[in-house]
Amino acid sequence: AANKKLLVLAGDGIGPEVMGEVKRVAAWMGSQRAVGFDIDEALVGGCSIDANGVPVTDATMDKAMTVDAVLLGAVGGPKWDGVDFSIRPEAGLLRLRKDMELFANLRPALVYPALADASSLKREIVEGLDILIVRELTGGVYFGEPRGITDLGNGERRGINTQVYTTSEIRRVAAVAFELARKRGNRLCSVEKMNVMESGRLWREEVTRLHQEQYSDVQLSHMLADNCAMQLVRNPKQFDVIVTDNLFGDMLSDEAAMLTGSLGMLPSASLGAPDAAGRRKALYEPVHGSAPDIAGQGKANPIATLLSFAMMLRYSFDLGTEADLIEGAVSDVLDRGIRTADIAGTGAAQLVSTGDMGTAILEAM
Amino acid sequence: AANKKLLVLAGDGIGPEVMGEVKRVAAWMGSQRAVGFDIDEALVGGCSIDANGVPVTDATMDKAMTVDAVLLGAVGGPKWDGVDFSIRPEAGLLRLRKDMELFANLRPALVYPALADASSLKREIVEGLDILIVRELTGGVYFGEPRGITDLGNGERRGINTQVYTTSEIRRVAAVAFELARKRGNRLCSVEKMNVMESGRLWREEVTRLHQEQYSDVQLSHMLADNCAMQLVRNPKQFDVIVTDNLFGDMLSDEAAMLTGSLGMLPSASLGAPDAAGRRKALYEPVHGSAPDIAGQGKANPIATLLSFAMMLRYSFDLGTEADLIEGAVSDVLDRGIRTADIAGTGAAQLVSTGDMGTAILEAM
Ligand SMILES: CC(C)[C@H](C(=O)O)[C@@H](O)C(=O)O
Ligand SMILES: CC(C)[C@H](C(=O)O)[C@@H](O)C(=O)O
To answer: How far apart are CA A176 and CA A199, in angstroms?
Structure first.
């Protein structure tokens, strides 16, 4: 088979370190499993602002639009806190999501048996937790117009953003969530704030209609966003798949991630619509941020980024066996007590660096 | 002193039961502490829809505008799920908040020593937790225009809501939060999503400016809303007072409430601006909902509503001693193992009904 074309955007902070381990695993896949990758690299976020004055260049966008998949590390840091809103590091990430039309963001929150004690929640509440949040990623208040700050005179200003969703935006992300639920526990919970927001009422109505039309075999429930924020704390294992909008998804997926107590373990996938040949544009990135405080010290946990690479194998290339290999190796290594600093609190037998963790996982593979 | 005028809006579900205990405590205050109350009562929510076709009548609004304080039970229930959006039970509550201009919603999340094990979080994470969330309550996406659902033809609809804040809306709620922080741990964390939303950027700028102008003695920090959703799970005791907007406050205060594991314990206050005589319009209500599944069975926990009454004594009438009496009695009763069903899991020596809990608290007073 022809080599798969990847664009690697390592970004800021610990991004380059954790992505270094991904490149080793990609090379291993080429030599041991005959799954070859052509890897191109470019800048995104703060490093791109420094080099090019913008958080992502048009040339990089062109590359992102043509490769088979994009791998992203992390963006941002205090160094760029002062830059103009329009060129802040996050704007690079938002442009990638929007221009690539990556409307479905998949965020699993999974508790590994070896790490169940890392959670701030009681063991019995989180042990065996396995939920998937599907977050709408190209709509809602993140991109709605009008937006901005207006000077009203007399020292008064007004800040505006617009929450907006259409039928087709809701249906396409809900369809992804229904499909994924079918492959898992067959239960989907749709989350909005329909008792206050008309956009949430439309969300509930459209999800309900799609369910009746095409997915009535999936068990569908609805929940208000504030209640969902509570239920994730009270009893997270009640959920299988959750589908929600961009802003609620931002908060609820971070809350769900923290339930596991090990952010350095959590991958994500952002997917577009399939084209005529069934191929989706896709971007894979860890849930954690750029962690500038530990950047360059070999302390970062590369597992979230490696698991993002595994998600890529599964979702973009249908290489389930190879994804299983990586995920299995991660479990093995954790069971043996090998830990980076962020997860050292839970049954560490051996504290290792970013690179040593990569080596341990490669050996387990 | 003249009797204080109260409007009691017991509402739906368990509202009338828990409010019954408040009326007993109010009567006790009259006979034992010479703090007299004239109590008027009216309908709000589903019961008002049934009786009057709207979730709150103009006549009730007139009363709410003239009394010294409003006490609310809870509104809503599945019975009214099908009513039109404009007259749903929640619209009554939202009209009260908006017309009374109750812009500052105070939601304490407090863990009682006797109930620390009720939490789904580990004891050491929540023991001694005492945070106060100040939520903006009359602005943002709850009330912003334009809003609604538009038919675009071809089976497409669009739902819109508007997130909007002005300088003065931000400053007045931040001022309340700064003042409250001064009376507590002197630390305020302001929460928004300024890396994505311009309204959040305005929020941060205005809070920062007010801090410099008038509250530089208070320790101010800023946090993104998604990170706050995480930090509340990871280490909630890092917070003293949190100030945030209407929608973020809705979710974060519910999340914080659930950290305590005992929703039936949590009161809230919603305050307006002081008038020339220093008096604020105010509404007090429990954080929990109307719990239609247990309504009318004497199972409901009246403590949240009794503590809301205590907040009223403190904030509306400066009766700190009387508020302390109620709060102390609640602690006593919990220490003695007296529990309603919702908190029975944690050291219950005696399981009691709504009325018996009220009696126990009255006796402890
Ligand atoms: C960095 C930021 C713009 C982003 C978001 O808000 O979507 C991040 O929090 C995330 O969840 O990926
Ligand atoms: C009932 C509902 C309208 C309300 C809100 O969203 O504000 C409730 O959730 C609350 O927090 O008081």
So the answer is: 20
